[in-house]
Amino acid sequence: MPWPSRKRDKGAVADKKEPDAKIAKTEEETSDKEEEEKSAKPPAGGSKSGWKNWKKKESESGGEESKITYCHWLLKSEPESRLEKGVDVKFSVDDLKAQPNQTTCWDGVRNYQARNFLRSMKIGQQAFFYHSNCKEPGIVAIVKIVKEAYPDHTQFDQKDPHYDSTSRKENPKWSMVDVQFVRMTKRFIPLSELKALHLAHKADGGPLKDMMLFTRQRLSIQPLTQEEFDFVLSLEETKPH
Question: Structural domain of residue 193, as residue ranges?
């Protein structure tokens, strides 16, 4: 890809508070722990509300109960600069929008579960673009899959931070997909709001009770059920909780 930045999910890095400690696309070792700690407050009053009325609205409009299958995704990316082996691995939604046709490969994934999720992606499926390891992490945009999994070229590039000397071209270990910008979300949906809703839904059985953003928070590529995706999308139309 023409940009020096790389999507990565080799290892999550803890959020840095210093203004010059910046980052790019994250993964399993990336410690979203600090992000979660910052937002791990019990839901207050209205934070708990929303899903039952939302569910009722879906039912009234004839919406069917979604099956427990993963058909949407959440892709974490670090929007602030950080050098890894001399390469700036930053990649924000603005970087994506600046790409030709607003499309890029999602490379640098070095976690097997995340790789398997990549390999499960289908053309046309939508994903949330999530800014991670920054001052205020959260969902900023929607993207779609425009090319299904194929070998990640960075695994064979010795100058790339994500070079893997154990991978062979005849049997590549790592895959990537191509994603295209669809639109910005109508409002920024912060991790803190999603966390409060997750805690409330754990208590009363709401749609975000098992959201992988909190059950497997270090993964930079996470699947979403139709119900999870639709509920998070519905937050665009509400005031921040």
Answer: 72-236
Bridge-based pairing of strands 70-77 and 126-131 is parallel
**89 Cβ partners below 8 Å, 6+ apart?**
5, 6, 8, 23, 24, 25, 78, 82, 83, 108, 161
Q: Domain count of the chain?
A: 1
The residue assigned the tokens 């139709």 is 226
Residue environment code for 172-183, b if the CB has 16+ CB neighbours within 10 A, otherwise e: eebbbbbbebee
> What CATH code is carried by the domain that includes residue 141?
3.10.590.10
Q: Which alpha helices (DSSP H) does the chain contain, by range?
A: 33-39, 51-60, 93-97, 112-120, 191-204, 212-215, 226-234
Q: Tokens at residue 145, please?
A: 């899959």
Which token pair is 91? 């990649």
pTM assigned to the model: 0.78
Tokens encoding 31: 């410690």
Dihedral of alpha carbons 19, 37, 29, 220, sign: negative
| Bridge partner list, 131 | 77, 138
> Which tens digits make up the pLDDT trace of 77-134?
999 999 998 999 999 999 999 999 999 999 999 999 999 999 999 999 999 999 999 9
Q: Indicate whether 108 belongs to any domain.
A: yes
Q: Residue 188: in which H helix or E strand, if any?
A: strand 175-190
Length of the chain: 241
Amino acid at 133: N
- Shortest CA distance to 66 belongs to which of 234, 228, 235? 228
**131 contacts 140 by C-beta, under 8 angstroms:** yes
